[in-house]
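Regression check, fructose -6-phosphate case 615:
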Amino acid sequence: MCGIVAYVGLNPAFPIVIDGLKRLEYRGYDSAGIATIEPEGDLVVSKKKGKVADLESHIGSSLPVGSVGIGHTRWATHGPPNDTNAHPHRGASERIAIIHNGIIENFAAIKESLKCRGHNLLSDTDSEVLAHLIEEVMDASSLDLFDAVRAALSQVVGAYALVVIDKDNPGRLIAARKSSPLVIGIGADGSYYVASDATPIVGHTKNVVYLEDEEVASLDLEEGLRIRTISNDIITPEVHALEMELESIEKGGYEHFMLKEIFEQPQSIRDSIRGRINLQHGEIKMQGIDDHWDRWENASRILILGCGTSWHAGLVAEYLFEEFARIPVEVEYASEFRYRNPIIRPDDVVIAISQSGETADTLAAIKTAKSIGAHVFGVCNVVGSSIPRETDSGAYTHAGPEIGVASTKAFTSQVAVLTMMALHVGHRKGNIPQDRFSRLLAELNNIPELVEKVLGQASRIDVIAEQFANAENALYLGRGFQFPIALEGALKLKEISYIHAEGYPAAEMKHGPIALIDDDMPVIFIAPMDDVYEKVVSNVQEVKARGGRLLGVVTEGDKDVAALADHVIEIPRCDDALAPLLSVVPLQLLSYRMAVLRECNVDQPRNLAKSVTVE
Ligand code: F6R
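Current build output:
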């Protein structure tokens, strides 16, 4: 949430920062701003409500040339999106400028005391107080910028990723982090980059340092990179090699990132299972489980935590673990779990699922679970992000960067990894006969080819989308393994097309939602030929009798649902437990095309941002 990018080096900062902002725009797009220190020593700030493109038009053709700069793309928390609330913010004497991601919880108290000392704050944001506070500390003491930032932050309660520039120190950036991610890039020519994630950095350097909580970094063209904690302990930076290619964060000829990512799923699922399935020996390798086997073997309960789409992946995992591992499972929204008084027993295993690895609620829930003694296993996509560093063990999903705000390939990769986990635990516990296990492994290994077949129906789905694009509501119904897919299908539609949609277990419909059905209501049944197929067919009949417009996601060769529905999309036959990996794909394509037909901004839906780093 909110994108931060900064540069100090020998080249003009503006093109690097503005390009970085475009890459980070998926983190927030209410407003954008940039500040540079120009060769004559002026601190020049431009900011604008709207997208990065609006900022560019506002700046026009006289571009800044200074070689130190900071940029920000905002997802509003305190104060509406407008030019004044946009970052960067300056201090009282306009000597420093800051960009900030996070929430300063005691900002009201700090603001009040700054006002009493004569400060005139211009915006409604919590962030502006940081600029005033840091500048005041510098003015009132002999501290240099590095120490002043540390001193000011010691008064602050809350979360921040912060970058500061000072016109009296034009060769320097100060960056600080607490509960909000920051990556530092080290250029071969002595330049430095700072960003909320690696996407703006990867085109410049592969050498990165991940700043840890409560660390402050000074990136100085003369003195190099120094890191200290807020309480002044010296930290030796650990340089990592970035495992990301520039092409993976570009659209590669697709109209939108979301469409590219939907079509990448055969490959992303392949990458998730690569090296983990051994067909020859009929086994799964999951180091993160094997290294802590006693915890899994003796687990009396598995608790799964996540938010949004990751929570839906957790619901699929509930069915998988109960089916294969025969361990009771509870799935919790991380945001609810963290503020309850949760009961965690020493023999519980907690699985935390997150694409970004930075979701504030999931991170906090993990800390709660760990503090009461649970073993926490992370299922994350972004390598080096906060959640994998906080968990006891885990498995990366290896889906590659997901830029589209609506999660697609991250979901199927999460489900693929969770499927392997459930199968592995079930197999090691002796719950799955070897022949069934080997058959499931072979089927899972073949899922990427089957996803390709589903994607082959994209143009047919486009035609169906035209029939539904004007709908105001939609109902998604499924049972068993397909109930979480009904929820996920509804979420995809809501978030990118702004059509109100609900997912329900198909049999629950009679207990209320059936009242919604009239001749106009699109009802999407996810009805592959699984254990509960016959029951779902009865539910389809109940809807048909009341006039809904019916779309069925069915198994190839289906006759019963096809006879009742107005449209069907077929998925290949596969084991019930693997069908979610196929059935979700047409729902992603349907939402995508409906949103495009409604002229919605698919990659940047209103009010949303990728990576929810505030609670
Ligand atoms: C929906 C979506 C969100 C995320 C949620 C959790 O398409 O992307 O619901 O799934 O914000 O994010 P992560 O997985 O990064 O923890």
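Comparison notes: DSSP finds 20 helices and 27 strands in the chain. Residues 9 and 191 are 4 Å apart (CA to CA). No diff flagged against the previous build.
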